[in-house]
Structure formats: structure tokens, C-alpha cells
Design a protein that fits this description.
With 389 residues, the chain is α/β, with parallel strands linked by helices. The chain is 46% helix and 14% strand. The chain has two domains: 152 residues, Alpha-Beta Complex (Aspartate Aminotransferase, domain 1), CATH 3.90.1150; 200 residues, Type I PLP-dependent aspartate aminotransferase-like (Major domain) (Aspartate Aminotransferase, domain 2). The longest helix has 19 residues.
């Protein structure tokens, strides 16, 4: 019996999240470096090497947000064209603080946002449970709301929150003129506008506008450092001086006044210096990869039905849908990496809400490693993957 239990435990470990992450992340050929790829030692050595090379290795350690954390806050404010910025340990905390501060100013605790927005899907009802906010939805279509939907929403709201891009709908963005019209519609209702910009760094290519012009449409903006920039953790809230000053007080009340944060701050500064300038090339190549995926999936003997969404990605991330069981697709992705050293897909999930039964979806990201992939490389990897189903 003990031998059987040991065998079952070994099998579970070899198919569990840690094992999958190690196989996918350690593959010689992959499309991107995920945040969980690598080891503790390797990540710390890389960060120490960058600190040496950037002249920051001999800086004093920060204490309660000074030093390198202040440098990061100033850099974010400059990049976004905002008067001030404050570092937060998490984006969940940053956005709750921002919207409760706006609610106090407007006298209205109602926030209009998409039902697929991060606070509605991934935060266990934190807006209501922790911050006393209530949400309404101008639309439930898998896209950002239109100006008419914002203007004509029957219930009053004090703030409009727009997630750019809307991740769970496929990392989708509106057109520039559409975004400006939506912001104008909110202003007509005397509502403030907050951007959930966890991945705002990815948006300039789609909009054809610099970061500061995009962020300048909003009253406040949150950005993440581990999404797209490859930081260890952390976020920032940017906006007017008086808002950020109050946000710092609430950050302390929420338990976000961390004693030392130099590893996260240094990794964020590295991301701003090294990854941010490369993001346009990742977005451009994601469109090449997506086109090659569509070509390969449409070949004779393919799945018969598939979806690459958006067809031309708006950022360097997009969705792929296939008519198979999610666990079977995940197993095939793992086997491909184990046997060929190529990570094309990673984990699959049952189709998002509104999707047909028997369909699974995954998210694909194109980063630095993916720039080496040609369309022929993508098609070869897709054929091998499908052959494992």
C-alpha cells in the first residue's frame, strides 16, 4: 500500500503546477519568459548583475518607500505624464485605494466597469467587501463599453473604470477615437475616469499614441510591474498630487507600507529600462505568430474549428480556442515540451463564459524569446502539437 501511495504522489508531482512550470519554463524554445520561469538563485543573480551594471548596487537600502522606491515612482510619473505616482505592493490594493479616494471626492461609491474586469472576476468581491464600493456594468459584450453605453446607462456612477486591454475578453482594446469618445461620455456625466492599466505598457502600438497621451485621458491610472515588464511584483498608482498624497495614507491603512521593497523596485526599474522599449516589437511579432497559427490550424487534418482572438492581436497577448478537453490540451502541451524542448502552449482552461461546451482556451504571449520564431517554426510546432491529440 505504501508503494502504491508513493507512486501516486510521484505521478501527481510530475504533472502538478510546479513540474509543468519547470518543464515549460526550461524549454530551450519558447515564446516568452513567464513570471514563474527560472529559479530563485538565477533571478536574484540576474537582478544583482543589473544593479551592478546600472550603477545602483551600492545604493543604500530603502526604508518605508524612500530611496530606490522614490526613484521608481518618479520614473513612472514621467512615463505616464502624470504629476505623481505611488508604489503599491499589489494592483488590487492600488485600485481599491484609488476608487475609494475618488468616491470620497465625488460623493458616489458606484463604479462603472466591465463584468470581465479584474476586480469583478479575480478579487473575491473586494470592492464591496473591503472598500464599500458598488459596481454597475454599462455592457456585458466581450469588449470595452461604447460612448453611447456609458452615456445612456440608467444608473448614476461616480467613476468609470476601463481595463486597457480587457484581458479576459482576449486582451482587446477599442480604437483611439472610440476610447476618447468613451472618456468624453463619462465626463458628460461628471464621472471621473480611472484606467486599470495593468498592461497599459502594451497599448501604444495599437493606439498609435505615446504612453503619456493615453494615460492623459484618465484622472488616474494603475500600472503593474510584473505584467509585460517582467518585474518581481508591485504596482503603481499615478494621478494628481492631492490624490496620490491621500492614496499614500490609505496605502498605510491597507497594510501596504512595506518596510523594504528594493528587490521589487529594482526589477521594475529594469523592466522600464529594458522591456518597455521592446514591447512594440513583441506586439508586431505577436501578429506574425497569430497569422501563422491560423494558417496551421486551418490545414487539412486540423481541428476543423478553432479561434485565434483577436485575429490581429491588439497587444503581444491573445487567446487561442480549440474544440478539445482542456486537460487533454494541457497534457499535449506538456508532452511537447518534454519530448521536443519546444513550449508553444502552456495551460488550457474550459472556454470562457459564453463559449460553446467542449471548447478550451489558452492565452499566448510573445516576448523576447518569441522574436526568433519564424512563421515556419510556428506551423511546425502547431502540427506537432495537434499530432499529440
Amino acid at each position: 500500500m505504501e508503494d502504491q501511495n508513493e507512486t501516486e504522489n510521484s505521478t501527481a508531482q510530475e504533472s502538478g503546477p510546479a513540474y509543468r512550470a519547470r518543464v515549460w519554463g526550461g524549454a530551450p524554445r519558447k515564446l516568452w519568459n513567464a513570471p514563474m520561469d527560472g529559479t530563485v538563485g538565477a533571478r536574484l543573480r540576474d537582478l544583482a548583475d543589473w544593479a551592478d551594471g546600472s550603477g545602483r548596487a551600492e545604493l543604500p537600502l530603502d526604508m518605508y518607500g524612500n530611496g530606490v522606491v522614490e526613484e521608481l515612482e518618479q520614473r513612472v510619473a514621467e512615463e505616464l505624464g502624470m504629476p505623481a505616482a505611488a508604489f503599491f505592493p499589489t494592483g488590487t490594493m492600488a485600485q481599491q485605494v484609488a476608487l475609494r479616494c475618488w468616491a470620497a471626492r465625488t460623493g458616489d461609491p458606484v463604479v462603472a466597469l466591465h463584468p470581465l474586469a479584474h476586480p469583478e472576476v479575480h478579487e473575491n468581491n473586494a470592492f464591496a467587501a473591503v472598500s464599500g464600493l458598488r459596481t454597475v456594468h454599462p455592457t456585458d459584450e466581450p469588449r470595452l463599453p461604447t460612448a453611447d453605453e456609458v452615456r445612456d446607462h440608467p444608473e448614476r456612477f461616480g467613476a468609470l473604470m476601463l481595463e486597457l486591454p480587457l484581458r479576459d475578453a482576449g486582451f482587446v482594446l477599442p480604437g483611439w477615437d472610440e476610447l476618447v469618445a468613451v472618456v468624453d461620455a463619462a465626463r458628460e456625466r461628471d464621472a471621473v475616469v480611472h484606467f486599470d492599466g495593468a498592461r497599459l505598457w502594451d497599448c501604444p502600438t495599437h493606439f498609435g499614441r505615446p504612453l503619456a497621451e493615453i494615460a492623459g485621458l484618465a484622472d488616474s491610472v494603475y500600472v503593474s510591474f510584473y505584467k509585460s515588464l517582467g518585474g518581481l511584483s508591485g504596482a503603481a498608482l499615478a494621478g494628481p498630487d492631492e490624490l496620490i498624497e491621500e492614496a499614500r495614507i490609505w496605502r498605510h491603512r491597507y497594510g501596504g507600507q512595506v518596510f523594504q521593497q528594493y528587490p521589487a523596485a529594482l526589477s521594475a526599474l529594469r523592466g522600464l529600462s529594458e522591456e518597455l522599449p521592446r514591447l512594440p516589437s513583441y506586439v508586431a511579432h505577436a501578429r506574425v505568430v497569430a497569422a501563422a497559427l491560423r494558417d496551421a490550424l486551418a490545414e487539412p487534418g486540423g481541428p476543423g474549428w478553432f479561434r485565434v482572438h483577436p485575429e490581429a492581436p491588439h497587444t503581444h497577448q491573445f487567446q487561442v480556442w480549440l474544440p478539445y478537453d482542456a486537460d487533454a490540451l494541457t497534457a499535449a502541451a506538456l508532452a511537447q515540451a518534454e519530448e521536443t524542448g519546444t513550449t508553444l502552449f502552456r495551460r488550457w482552461f474550459p472556454a470562457p463564459a459564453g463559449g460553446p461546451p467542449g471548447v478550451a482556451a489558452t492565452e499566448l504571449t510573445v516576448g523576447g524569446p518569441g522574436l526568433a520564431w519564424t512563421p515556419a517554426d510556428v506551423r511546425t510546432a502547431v502540427r506537432d502539437f495537434l499530432g499529440r491529440l
